[in-house]
Amino acid sequence: MSREKFYITTAISYPNGKPHIGHAYELLATDALARFQRLDGKDVFFLTGTDEHGIKMLQTAKKEGITPRELADRNAAEFRRMGQALNASNDDFIRTTEERHHASSQAIWKAMEANGDIYKGGYAGWYSVRDEAYYGEEETEVRADNVRYGPQGTPVEWVEEESYFFRLSAYQDKLLALYENQPDFVGPSERRNEVASFVKSGLKDLSISRTTFDWGIPVPGDEKHVMYVWVDALTNYITAAGYPDTQAPSWGYWPATHIIGKDIVRFHAVYWPAFLMSAGIELPKRVFAHGFLFNRGEKMSKSVGNVIDPFTMVDHYGLDQVRYFFLREVPFGQDGSYSHEAIVNRTNADLANDLGNLAQRSLSMIAKNCNGVVPQRGTLVEADTAILEQASAALAIARKAMSEQAIHQALAAIFTVVADANRYFAAQEPWALKKTDPARMETVLWTTAEVIRRVGILCQPYIPGSAEKLLDTLAVAADRRDFEHLTDVHALVPGTALPAPQPVFPRYIEQPEATA
Ligand code: ME8
């Protein structure tokens, strides 16, 4: 039987600068969602990449005195490097300047044209280069500085030129029906409501080509025009699945779940499904928008330097500390803030103290008192089975949460088990049992180690490197680490030799402020 397929994407980032913490956040959250489904037995395809065309790229390159291609090459390499630094498990990295993507973009254009949805006209209106977006005049305002701004707070400029249009107005009712009939198409629900009211307010046809520059994908049959960057950008998601070759095995992954930031919901939940309906392609499963991250830590920038840089942040706090902090601390879908104190408090409390100490204390007791092998499992009493069952039951809670992109809730459930396992360990006092009832001590240590095994398996999507170390310490075979191995059948076998326990989560220790 073939496994269920699961396709998940991040937005593709503009490589007009280096990756920042917002990009890192989106990638690692999507990575956790992808890893979860892989461990849950699905055949996963996880895509990320860079969005290399458009005026923003062209203008930045001009400012730097290089070609847009050079700018894209330089920064796309940084985005790839960020993926490695974050331990992202993406299966592909797409760059929109690749040949496969030109072919796919031209194919979807032709399909929309064949459906009668593309016509030539003249565009006159407002455009934000920073957002690469057209805005209606009623969405803009002139501020005190006499500059006109769009709804995202970026300056807009007047554009007037010959342009091809997409008949977006013809899709108003179909889009409203989509939001109505498939309420989980856009999440969180506040975003769906926003999108629905934007569509209800009336859709104008969309300008989808430009003639004043040539950094883009040529319009088929009219090379004077290049495609509007969002037409090609959105198409990346089907390019990577093999479009236009819908017979390719990779096409089996489509449709995808798109993870994006809240500022680009309109493109993904209005334009994209309209393009796909027009081209006769199945719609995405879901578009989920996460919130924005803000730096609220003054102290952080003093002591650490430029912490907006994800590389510095990982170097300073540790990779899994950064992953854990953002995934646990920020409810996925809402805005979040980060600060030095928040990162240190959260990771020291949950990782170093709760999980780290539990593992270290129980495993060093095993090393000392059980000859370094998995202890004997005597008769389990209710306290033992309760904590073991709680650990296994966390899977169902995490599974439901992850299916709704509630990443923080999944982690909360897993770390509730860790907190309860600490209480169990303290209440059972295995160190006291050593003299009074050594057999019972072994059972308590076995139970604790087995709970750590289960927690270690469950933690893999979020803190993969540390979870791997934890499972190595328990001598869990590499092919016994999927969620299907969370059951009693795969429990630790007494007598199995264990390596010497190594601390997995170092405590963050405050460095004295450097004096200038
Ligand atoms: O929008 N916090 O690219 P981009 C959280 N190329 N997320 C943030 C953020 C922040 N401070 N800043 C940006 C684009 N993001 C387009 C996408 S998809 C076909 C094309 C998120 O480099 C942002 O919301 O400006 C988006 O999802 C992603 O980073 C890339 O942003």
Automatic annotation (TrEMBL):
InterPro entries (UniProt xref): aa-tRNA-synth_I_CS (IPR001412), Anticodon_Met (IPR041872), Met-tRNA_synth (IPR014758), Met-tRNA_synth_2 (IPR023457), Methionyl/Leucyl_tRNA_Synth (IPR015413), MetRS_core (IPR033911), Rossmann-like_a/b/a_fold (IPR014729), tRNAsynth_Ia_anticodon-bd (IPR009080)
SUPFAM superfamilies with a match to the protein in the record: Anticodon-binding domain of a subclass of class I aminoacyl-tRNA synthetases, Nucleotidylyl transferase
Catalysis: reaction(s): tRNA(Met) + L-methionine + ATP = L-methionyl-tRNA(Met) + AMP + diphosphate
Motif 'KMSKS' region positions after renumbering to this chain: 299-303
Enzyme Commission number, as recorded: 6.1.1.10
Compartments where found: Cytoplasm
Ranges for domain Methionyl/Leucyl tRNA synthetase: 7-362
Keyword Ligase: yes
Keywords assigned by UniProt, alphabetized: Aminoacyl-tRNA synthetase, ATP-binding, Cytoplasm, Ligase, Nucleotide-binding, Protein biosynthesis
Class in the EC hierarchy, top level: ligase
GO MF entries: methionine-tRNA ligase activity
Ranges spanned by the short sequence motif 'HIGH' region, renumbered to the chain: 13-23
First-listed, main subcellular location of the protein, grouped into a coarse class: cytoplasm
Chain ranges of the Methionyl-tRNA synthetase anticodon-binding domain: 374-507
Physiological role: Is required not only for elongation of protein synthesis but also for the initiation of all mRNA translation through initiator tRNA(fMet) aminoacylation.
Family: Belongs to the class-I aminoacyl-tRNA synthetase family. MetG type 2B subfamily.
Database matches in HAMAP family: Met_tRNA_synth_type2
Subunit architecture: Monomer.
Entry protein name: Methionine--tRNA ligase
Organism in which the protein naturally occurs: Mesorhizobium retamae
Taxon lineage: Bacteria, Pseudomonadati, Pseudomonadota, Alphaproteobacteria, Hyphomicrobiales
Gene that this sequence comes from: metG
